[in-house]
Amino acid sequence: MHPTPSPPGQLQLRGDGQPPGLSIAGDWTLQHYPRLKREIERARPRLDAACPVELDGLGALDTAGASLLVELLGPQRLADIARWAPQLPAERLALLHTVATAVAGAAAAPEEEAKRSTLRDELAHIGRVVEMLWEQQRTLYGFIGLTLSTLLLSLPRPRRWRVTPLVAHIERTGLDAVPIVALLTFMVGAVVAFLGATVLGQFGATIYTVNLVAYSFLREFGVLLCAILMAGRTASAFAAQIGAMKANEEIDAIRALGLDPVELLVLPRVLAMLVTLPILTFIAMLCGILGGLAVCVLALDISPVQYFAILEQEISVNHYLVGLGKAPLFAFLIAVIGCLEGFKAGGSAQSVGERTTSSVVQSIFMVILLDALAALFLMEMGW
């Protein structure tokens, strides 16, 4: 014999009490949802919070029926159903309590959103940004330590040196960058000479344009322009290359073969930058001074002999050493940041693009920050 099915859900108002009582019986399921919805809309105006409710005749119950009961009786009342209707089975008490709590939380969320303070939101956003920057710097310092430790472990073992990738990266990062570095620094040197001549000419001191060009390019502009160019050209290339390998799971394959990705991918790029950036810095210094020479010869009537005589007599070699000494530090940071951002890339092209952009921004920021700190330190030391 088949069990007798329960009657469809129904609700009945009893008018023999004050306030009137409510009896709920039958199956409150999705099958009867439209009819029960209409009955609830008709009965709700005659109910209040103190209306007694009988649930003894309640049959089957699902989430749709529980939501109707929450709409009828209110989420606060049903959230406390275990107290006033303990006779119901435990699974129905749990279902009604869960649905009532969810509905109450959804109703309270817009109110909490409206009460949120704009100032608090801004402070929270600043806190998240600061925390993100702190984690970013911690990751960078950890990766620098990993790179240096791998380099120290590889130096005593010449068989592990990767000479071919090193030479290939020297060509790409150094030789291929010579034309753009030379052209840019030559034009900047000419601009600095024009500005110097314009300002110093008001005081009859145009001859000191030579000193201005020499000081600016030997100490600052030569290495700084090269580092910014390498950040935009080389750090982005490192991040894109390693990020593409990460997206294609090639780095996982390298680890599966028992090889070290840092030794295989990072060290050749870092060492190539350490070799090429000082050379490019020297070229930038030379081209910047030649740009200033062109302006001095063409616009200021300063002969090349006089120009180089001033450089020899009044510009000491320590200015050249100060500028050249910054190049290895900038080169190391640019290469490490580019490689780290490549390892951070996910499995999508969008992630690779975001990390490539991040590598350029971080590299330029770190270069300018360190250059400013070095300028302050050298000024205090009198070097």
Automatic annotation (TrEMBL):
Keywords: Cell inner membrane, Cell membrane, Membrane, Transmembrane, Transmembrane helix. GO terms for molecular function: phospholipid transporter activity. Residues 1-20 are annotated as: Disordered. Pfam families: MlaE (PF02405). It is a multi-pass membrane protein. It comes from the Bacteria. It is found in: Cell inner membrane. One of its GO terms (cellular component) is ATP-binding cassette (ABC) transporter complex. The chain crosses the membrane at residues 177-200, 212-232, 270-300, 320-340, 360-379. Belongs to the MlaE permease family. PANTHER family: ABC TRANSPORTER PERMEASE, ABC TRANSPORTER PERMEASE PROTEIN-RELATED. This is MlaE family lipid ABC transporter permease subunit. It comes from Azotobacter chroococcum.
